[in-house]
Amino acid sequence: MFRDRLWRRDPLLVALVVLILVSFSGFALRRAPAGPQVAVFWLLMLAVQGCFAVCSWRVAASMPGTSARALAGRRMWRYFGAAGAVLVLGNVVQLGVTARDATSYDAVAGTGLQLVSIAVGIALMVGGLLRYPLGGMGRAQRLRLRIDVGTVMAAATTFGLWVFQPPAGEHDLAWALQTGIAVLVQPGLFLVAIFAVVKIVLGGRSPFTPAAGVLYGAAAVLQAGLQAVPVTLYLDQGFRPWLFAANVAGSGLIAIGARVQERQVRAGSGRHGRAEAERPYSPLPYAAMASVWLLAFGMLAFHGLAWRSWVVLAGAAVTTVLVTARQVAAFRHISELLRERDALTSRLTDLAYHDGLTRLANRGQFMSRLHEAIAAGSVTVFLIDLDDFKPVNDAYGHASGDQLLIEVANRLRACVRAGDLVARLGGDEFAVLVEGLPEDRRAGVANGLALALHGTVRIGAAEVSLSASVGMATGKYGTSDPDSLLHEADMAMYAAKESRRELIY
């Protein structure tokens, strides 16, 4: 709905789209002489790049917020606005050259100053993209991002070298210098631009609204291809109109993207700097590797082992190595995650079945073990409750009470066998589970537990009295259940506590 209103109520967007369509149809007719055709091309480039510059400055002025990402977004669009101004300046100079002689080499292919304006403009745009923050990333995530970007860049470089046409002439030092400059100034700059775009796309935090991001991605791909086209094709009457139209379309997409961003930011629907959910992997590097291998197979099938075939095969090998490294890095990260999961599972299990203060088994583990013990055979439960524990908390504080509970836990551990289970059921109530205990030894174990918890305990500077009441119950499979056995031990423990009270009073 918003997109429909956007296009209906924005004459500038409609005009830019119409201009691109008319330029394709107009240049395709080829009825105009070469001179007027060149002049119209540079006028159109001036118009669309002027729109891009103005819209970029307006986006920077319209973006809300004072966060670090919002400030980075405004800075990026100012870079874009400055790039558009530089491109406009180069086109103005180029129109002056065209006015003197529209059929000259400089008028058609561009002067050195115009080429410099393109280089500076792209550098400003790339600088804005590279300075845009991607958000917090871990070490493993940064490594995977670098490998993914490297894979895509290796594929893009392979295609760039495949379509690149070296200058004609004798292969001397001057030719080598001219070739190096051509690679750096034309396809090289756009490879850097692709790098910036790919880094942002794979980083998962886009500085563009979705519609603007699609337009800029299409423009980057189109312009990268156009910059790899040799100058000789621009001088060819058969190719020139289509190349002119394609250049207008590429610059027009950039202008449309800026205008769409401006409109959506002004309307409040442009979620600038939106963070996308992290995906386990991106298909882009794998698609890049597959495309290079398809190109390599095609080169071998139609051209054999020519020098370009070796270049493409080298690119295929590099992308494969990078994708393999990406998989190794991913497997290592998965292994680390599995170790962290196992450690967390162990920690959660420990917390679920152990008392946090004394590190004894808790009620849940005790009841589970009691169910298993009754099903296996005879089991004896000793229920232990400390005498007069509340006055210790009241007189010395809860920290001292905790220290007393820890001491009780240590004493209980010391007087049972390795296979017996000692648990804290809650508060000052403890339990001991002993399997297969002979009848003639049960009273001795109960007395031993009571004796271990009798006397005094030093807590800080205080001497605290310690005593406990012990209740015992025995059961076996078919005659007892865990709840009734625990209840029987509880009753015996309270009976022991009452007997102690009667003796005292």
TrEMBL record:
Signal peptide segment: none
Q: Where is the GGDEF domain?
A: 377-505
Q: In the UniProt record, does the keyword Transmembrane helix occur?
A: yes
Provide the alphabetized UniProt keywords.
Membrane, Transmembrane, Transmembrane helix
Q: Which SMART domains match?
A: GGDEF
Does this UniProt record's set of keywords contain Membrane? yes
Please give the PROSITE patterns that the UniProt record associates with this protein.
GGDEF
* Sequence intervals crossing the membrane: 40-59, 79-99, 111-133, 145-164, 176-202, 214-235, 241-260, 281-304, 310-331
Pfam families registered for this protein in UniProt: GGDEF
On the tree of life, the source organism's domain of life is Bacteria
Query: What name does this protein carry?
Result: GGDEF domain-containing protein
